[in-house]
Amino acid sequence: MANIKSAKKRIKVIEKRTAINRRRKSEIKTYIRKFNEALESGNIEEAKSLLRLVEKKLYRAAAKGTIHKNAASRKVSRLARRLNEAV
Fold first, then answer.
1. What is 17-86's CATH superfamily?
2. Closest CA to 32 of 51, 59, 49
3. Mean pLDDT rounded to a whole number for the chain
């Protein structure tokens, strides 16, 4: 455990940020799973709307530093490719 006041504060801040990042990543994974389910069931329109939503969430997470910018782009690219192959 930290003894210095600023170090104690950093620990609190890190815990908050970790919780926020975990929530963001979990939300993204949920939407990706829904996208995959829509694609497998053949619901193309729902998959298209979910892709737009996932893309927005991924780029937002990248802007906030939760995930790397290139990782977000890679995931969006792969999802878009899967959608285009299904169509």
1. Ribosomal protein S20 (1.20.58.110)
2. 51
3. 97
